[in-house]
Amino acid sequence: MPMQPTPVQFPGAVPRAVLSTRQIVWGLFFDPAILFFLQRERWWRGFRVMAAFALVTGLALGGVRFPTVWTAATEWSSWLGREVGTIHLTHGELAWDRPKSLPYTTRHRGWRLDFVPAQTVFVPPLKKGPETRGVWISPNRVNAWYLMAGDSPMVLPVLANHKIWGVLDADSLWPAGLRLSGEDLPRMVRDGLIVALPFFLIQQAVGVLLQVFFYTALFAFIPVFLRGAGSGGGFGSSFAFYCFASVPPLIVAGVYSGLGLPFLEYDTVFVLGFVVYLFLAARGVRREQAEPDE
How far is residue 98's CA from residue 112's CA, in Å, rounded to a whole number? Predict the structure, then answer.
């Protein structure tokens, strides 16, 4: 349960008004007790500090993860190129050299590929085998899928109704008659990854920011809701407090996620670190208050 920030005053403390952003950030990492001085800061200042660290952490995570994406995509595209031989579009429909006999299913490194005839109705995959992800390919539709918790599939339409990702016109990106050999497929994927790099980094940064913002706003709302909107400084004060409190945990979660350690996702590590950090801040308050005045 998130704690309700309680006003405290330490002997000999520096007044809040003179604390710069640099001093606040330093204190958050090396003197967690400073957190209780910041509950009356403007909510936008806390959000600005939190957002800056979340975006930088997300960009760093994207930079760490991208080489893995690059290696997996190029290796996977090389294998796919050897499987299909040549790929081309005919009247807006996908065609390939192999396999000739459909339906056909093959597997590679935990991926399941299903080649099916045209006009085959796509059925969301359930637990058909050990694979938890795959691609379902027909001449007029390509779907990527991923089994989440509880065997519920997430389906992403890659190609449908002559549209790529539902937005880009397939014929304009892939002119009729253009035959892409299996050897060319990895090069095409590499070129696409280079173009997609800025968008990948932005997606990672925004993803971290949204996760941190969600939990921060939730933690800030709980004490206000339980004690009434008029308690203390209201939601703005609580939100500022938890924005500042989220900075060290989001860095810890970013390091954990960047190392690729198993078992825990970014948001799980963030929440655990958030709770631990609040206890550290509270312990720092008790230690400061127990020290005699000089």
Answer: 16
Q: How would you class 153 by CB atoms within 10 Å of its CB: exposed for 0-12, middle for 13-18, buried for 19 or more?
A: middle
User: Is 74 within a domain?
Assistant: no
61/166 Cα distance (integer angstroms): 28
Residues 280 and 218 in one domain: yes
Report yes or no on 230 lying in a domain: yes
Phi/psi region, residue 217 (left: phi>0; alpha: psi -120 to 50; beta: rest), is alpha
Q: How many domains does the chain have?
A: 2
pTM of the predicted structure, to 2 decimals: 0.71
> In the chain, which ranges are continuous DSSP H helix?
21-30, 43-84, 170-173, 184-227, 234-245, 247-258, 266-290
User: Is 39 part of any domain?
Assistant: yes
Domain of residue 211: give its range. Answer: 16-63+200-290
- Read off the pLDDT of residues 33-87 as tens digits, 9 standing for 90 and up: 888 877 777 888 889 999 999 999 999 999 999 998 888 888 888 888 888 888 7
Of the candidates 181, 212, 234, which is a domain's last residue?
181
* DSSP three-state, residue 55: helix
Rounded Cα distance between 34 and 115, Å, is 60
Give CA–CA dist 162/241, Å, rounded. Answer: 50
Predicted confidence (pLDDT) per residue in 177-230, tens digit: 667 777 777 887 888 788 889 989 999 999 999 999 999 999 888 877 776 544
Q: Is 126 helix (H, G, I), strand (E, B) or coil?
A: coil
| Contact between 184 and 85 (Cβ < 8 Å) | no
Residue corresponding to tokens 């960009």: 59
Q: Are 95 and 89 in contact (CB under 8 A)?
A: yes
Q: 137 - beta bridge partners?
A: 115, 142
**Encoded tokens for 195:** 């173009």
Which of 212, 211, 208, 184 has its CA nearest to residue 77?
A: 184
